[in-house]
């Protein structure tokens, strides 16, 4: 029986899941690959934690360098994460001619071009299915299954922590902090949960998907990012009254010479499948000129779902090694010479539907003043809702608009914020309606 040797760097939550599958499902995998995937070494500085995995003697070590320098190791799986030492280890593994699997979305989003270039020059594979959407085969779908399509848009829920928090607030009225603590306890939040709630983690994933779908250089810095920390329970409740749920969406749309790339809380109508993706689940709706709409749905975080994607990559690479087909699929889906610098459309240029909430005085003429300013900036109102009646103090006025240009919306809201009848800053939430 042929044997492919594997070295695992990092045995935290997902790393331990990978080790578990390699050991406990070894025979099943072998029957599908035609070779044994032998976990030769697992390197982690933490030797104390009991992972409940029966490693053979000598498998668990603390020295990652030993894995990188071991000539018998064919595939290095990097499960350390972050942009520090993980990058050095990946580059070293590539330099030593090893195939690499990683789930490191932050590193890929910021330096994926460099890593892929190094791997291509060395003639090794670099696989990263688990970097986006956990178990969902989104990378493989874009690189292989949808290869005959021009992708027109991708709209996804790509952060389990944010989806969990928003679902708990919406369905159970749980406070934000309590829901975040649960997500942390369940192991889906990042070590620094600000990466989740401020939208950065979702942006990392969108940067990777945009490159794969549109053949553009990985571009993280131009993605518009707004997290969920300012979404209030009252906006969630108003959204419900209008027939929407608020989701943190990653939106990547092909717009001719540019790409719309944005991450922000978004109102999604009840009838849209994405509005029914709750708890810590992820989903992404991909639209292509041949397939139409296609939805991937599944757990985007957590030990075993993410490990499942890592194993998928490891098996792909093992099969490539066995058939001498390393490099069969280009690392970023497009041939390197076909990858272009496609600009991200500035968010001010997008046009979409909006939800506004104003805190305004409840007296005659207020609504006409507000709608007058909106009209001045070509913002057409679709519906208005005023909550409550007060002889003194402000009341919430909520509006939904038809298509409007973001730059006009910003000008209008800033003018409205300056009126003495409006208290505080108006709230804006973008809407992704089914007709967009
Ligand atoms: N913190 C991430 C999430 C983990 O909540 O989705 C998976 O990338």
Question: Which helices and strands occur, and which strands form pairs?
Answer:
Blueprint: E1 2-9, H1 13-24, H2 26-33, E2 35-43, E3 60-61, H3 64-69, E4 75-78, H4 85-95, E5 99-102, H5 105-122, E6 126-127, H6 138-145, E7 151-157, H7 160-172, H8 176-185, H9 194-197, H10 200-214, E8 224-225, H11 233-242, E9 244-255, E10 258-269, E11 281-288, E12 292-299, H12 303-323, E13 351-361, H13 366-376, E14 381-386, E15 394-401, E16 404-405, H14 406-417, E17 422-431
Parallel strand pairs: 1-2, 1-4, 2-3, 4-5, 5-6, 8-10, 10-17
Antiparallel strand pairs: 7-9, 7-11, 9-10, 11-12, 13-15, 13-16, 13-17, 14-15
The chain binds L-homoserine.
Description:
- The mean pLDDT is 96.
- The N and C termini lie far apart (54 Å).
- Helices cover 36% and strands 26% of the residues.
- The strands form two sheets. Strands 7, 8, 9, 10, 11, 12, 13, 14, 15, 16 and 17 form an eleven-stranded mixed β-sheet that branches. A six-stranded parallel β-sheet has the order 3-2-1-4-5-6, with helices on both faces.
- It is of the alpha/beta class.
- The chain has three domains: 3-137 and 303-338, 3-Layer(aba) Sandwich (Rossmann fold); 141-299, 2-Layer Sandwich (Dihydrodipicolinate Reductase, domain 2), CATH 3.30.360; 349-431, ACT domain (Alpha-Beta Plaits, 2-Layer Sandwich).
- It is elongated, with a radius of gyration of 24 Å.
- Helix 1 packs across helix 12, helix 4 runs parallel beside helix 5 and helix 5 (105-122) runs parallel beside helix 10.
- The chain has helices at residues 13-24, 26-33, 64-69, 85-95, 105-122, 138-145, 160-172, 176-185, 194-197, 200-214, 233-242, 303-323, 366-376, 406-417; strands spanning 2-9, 35-43, 60-61, 75-78, 99-102, 126-127, 151-157, 224-225, 244-255, 258-269, 281-288, 292-299, 351-361, 381-386, 394-401, 404-405, 422-431.
- It binds L-homoserine (HSE).
- L-homoserine is lined by residues 134, 159-161, 188-190, 196, 201, 300-301.
């Amino acid at each position: 029986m042929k044997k492919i040797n594997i070295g695992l760097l990092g045995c935290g939550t997902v790393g331990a899941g990978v080790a578990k599958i390699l050991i406990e499902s070894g025979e099943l995998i072998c029957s599908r690959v035609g070779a044994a995937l032998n976990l030769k070494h697992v390197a982690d500085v933490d030797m104390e934690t009991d992972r409940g995995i029966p490693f053979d003697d000598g498998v668990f070590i603390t020295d990652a360098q030993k894995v990188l320098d071991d000539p018998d190791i064919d595939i290095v799986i990097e499960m350390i994460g972050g942009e520090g030492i993980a990058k050095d280890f990946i580059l070293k593994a590539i330099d030593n001619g090893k195939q690499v699997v990683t789930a490191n979305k932050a590193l890929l989003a910021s330096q994926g071009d460099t890593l892929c270039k190094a791997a291509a020059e060395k003639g090794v594979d670099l696989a990263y299915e688990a970097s986006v959407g956990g178990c969902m085969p989104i990378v493989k779908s874009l690189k292989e299954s949808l290869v005959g399509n021009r992708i027109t848009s991708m709209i996804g829920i790509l952060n389990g922590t944010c989806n969990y928090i928003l679902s708990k607030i919406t369905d159970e009225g749980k406070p934000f902090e309590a829901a975040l603590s649960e997500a942390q306890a369940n192991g889906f939040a990042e070590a620094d949960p600000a990466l989740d709630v401020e939208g950065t983690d979702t942006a990392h994933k969108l940067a990777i998907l945009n490159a794969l779908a549109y053949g553009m250089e990985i571009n993280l810095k131009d993605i518009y990012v707004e997290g969920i920390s300012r979404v209030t329970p009252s906006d969630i409740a108003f959204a419900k009254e209008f027939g929407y749920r608020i989701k943190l969406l990653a939106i990547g749309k092909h717009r001719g010479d540019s790409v719309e790339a944005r991450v922000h809380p978004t109102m999604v109508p009840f009838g849209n499948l994405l509005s029914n993706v709750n708890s810590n689940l992820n989903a992404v709706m991909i639209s292509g000129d041949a397939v139409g709409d296609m939805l991937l749905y599944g757990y985007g975080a957590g030990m075993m779902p993410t490990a499942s994607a890592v194993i998928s990559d490891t098996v792909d690479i093992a099969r490539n090694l066995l058939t001498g087909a390393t490099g069969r699929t280009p690392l970023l889906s497009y041939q390197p010479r076909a990858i272009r610098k496609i600009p991200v459309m500035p968010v001010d240029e997008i046009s979409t539907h909006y939800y506004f909430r104003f805190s305004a005085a409840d007296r005659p003429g207020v609504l006409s003043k507000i709608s007058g300013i909106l009209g001045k900036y070509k913002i057409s109102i679709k519906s208005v809702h005023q909550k409550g009646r007060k002889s003194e103090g402000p009341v919430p006025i909520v509006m939904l608009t038809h298509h409007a240009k973001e730059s006009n919306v910003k000008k209008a809201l800033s003018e409205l914020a300056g009126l003495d009848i409006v208290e505080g800053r108006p709230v804006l939430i973008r809407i992704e309606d089914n007709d967009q």
